[in-house]
Structures are given as structure tokens and as C-alpha cells.
Amino acid sequence: LVTGVFVDGAMKLSRVDKEMELLDKAYKLFQRSDEDGSGDIAWDEFQSRLESPEMSEFFEALEISSARADDLFQLIDRSQDGKLSLEELVAGGLMLQGPA
After folding, report:
1. Long-range pairs, 59-65, Cβ under 8 A, ≥24
2. 6-42 as b/e, with b when 16 or more CB fall inside 10 Å?
3. Helix, strand, coil percentages, rounded to 5, for the chain
4. Mind listing the pLDDT tens digit for each residue in 3-43?
5. For residue range 37-84, what is the model confidence (pLDDT) as tens digits?
């Protein structure tokens, strides 16, 4: 029983750590990708950053190939306006990240 409680606690901490890491990576990516300062990332801004370290780290955290960038963008663009808000980027990342 004690081992089970310990493992459960460790898994919860691992999940929280993973979520915090993703939040940090999404925020950094957003800050560097919003080139025009509009508060959104348009597809052309997103696409132009595909080779950046921030984008690579974001895709690695999601365990998704950057070759799927268009699919990812379309999936997490919940408003379907061709732009990603910080909220869409973070929420989409957390949704796709899954359990620890």
C-alpha cells in the first residue's frame, strides 16, 4: 500500500513537471514567433520558425514530428481563424501531450 501511494504521488509530480515544462516551452515559442506583435501567431509566422530551437523543443515535448506542423496548427487553431493565440497554443499542447 505504501509503495502504491508513493508511485501514485511520483506519477502526479511527473505529470505536473511535464505540464510546467510544456507551458514554459509554449510561452517561449509564442514570444519568439509573434513577429508582428499582434498577440497571435499566424501560419506564416509559425512556419517561419519551424527550424528554430523553440519550435524543436515544443514539438519534442509533444512527441510530434515537425513534419506534421500544418496538421498541428490546424488542430490547435480552435477558433479556425488561421492564427494561434497563446491560450490556443498552450491548451492544444496540453491536450496533445497526454499523460506523463
Report:
1. 61/18, 61/21, 61/22, 61/25, 61/93, 61/97, 62/22, 62/93, 62/96, 62/97, 64/96
2. eeeeeeeeeeeebbeebeebbebbbeebbeeeeebbb
3. 70, 5, 25
4. 666 556 555 557 778 889 999 999 999 999 999 999 999 99
5. 999 999 999 999 999 999 999 999 898 999 999 999 999 999 999 999
The three-class DSSP label of residue 51 is coil
pTM: 0.79
Counting beta carbons within 10 angstroms of the beta carbon of residue 44, is it exposed (0 to 12), middle (13 to 18) or buried (19 or more)? exposed
